[in-house]
Design brief:
- This protein has helices at residues 3-27, 30-54, 63-81, 84-107, 113-132, 170-193, 195-205, 207-212, 217-243, 253-266, 272-288, 296-310, 315-344, and strands at residues 140-141, 144-145, 159-160, 163-167.
- It is mainly alpha-helical.
- The strands form two sheets. It has a two-stranded antiparallel ribbon with strand order 1-2.
- It is globular.
- The two termini are 34 Å apart.
Amino acid sequence: MTLAVKTAAQLTALILAVVAIAAAPMLLDLFDLIELTLFASMAVLALSLGFIWGFGGILSFGQTAFFGLGGYAYAVAAINFGDSTPAILLAIALPAAFAALLGYFTFYGRVSDVYFSVITLTVTLILFNVVNSTAGDEYRIGDAALGGFNGMPAVPTFNMPFDPAAVLEPEASWYVAAGTLVAVYVLLRLLLASSFGRIAVAVKENEVRASLLGYDPRLIKLIVFVIGGAVAGLAGALYVNWGAFVNPTIFGLALSAQIIIWVTIGGLGTLIGPVVGCILVQYIVSRIGTQQTFNANLILGAVLIGFVLLLPRGLMPTLQHIATQAGSRLAYMFSRDNAGRAIADRPAGAE
């Protein structure tokens, strides 16, 4: 596939995505639209791990740490400021700063990949237990009571920028969540197409060779990790906006495992894969949860095992491979037919 064809295909997919986002409120009822809003919010979280793991080689078991920090930062700021605009900015900045601090000590401390995964998992557990222990009235930040295991109810949802009186309706929240998902995807795609993105992938492939070329793998991985933390924090704000509620389960290990499953099923090393994997798994979970005949977890486990065994590279890389093979075969058949016609049309006696 040539660069021009690939670019045209990407632009067509982007246009179709924008059209689908615009048409969804007219085609779906309110319940389905709200459910899709949740899917889009969680897909942003899946993108955060898909980016740092698939293109930075950083397997983090603790993306929910940044997701939860973003959610709580948004909730606390929205209650105190009464405006979602600075709250959203804080939900991005705080997880990014925390990722910078954590990443600095781990990457510059030469912590190996396995221990890094364990550290991120431990940080998530620590945050869960800390927030879970803030049930007393004394645990508050300004006007926002943290609520401990009960969480923080009645969190103000998104409003128009710097206009707290103009609260967004569910349809507008859908546009924000889905639009954010598309915007984050496009920005990450552009970042990967830049020189920094190519360097990040080079560091993932071979740190020693990248360092011999004059790059600092620790700094590159730190920047990638910070970007992933910021995206996860933004996803936390979108999630809290969806439910107007946040509690310590946002740091839970179950969600941490789900994010890895989303990326694995969708396809590691792609950006669209984590999005597709997240939406697919979330849809399956919501549908099998409505029936009482079979155990929902058993069905989900069987589906996940089937995906891993039958599509070890992930759904999107497998589909791309099939499409590439089909295109190559069509091109070969077309060139062979043209060659056959050229020979048939050649004048008699011509060499």
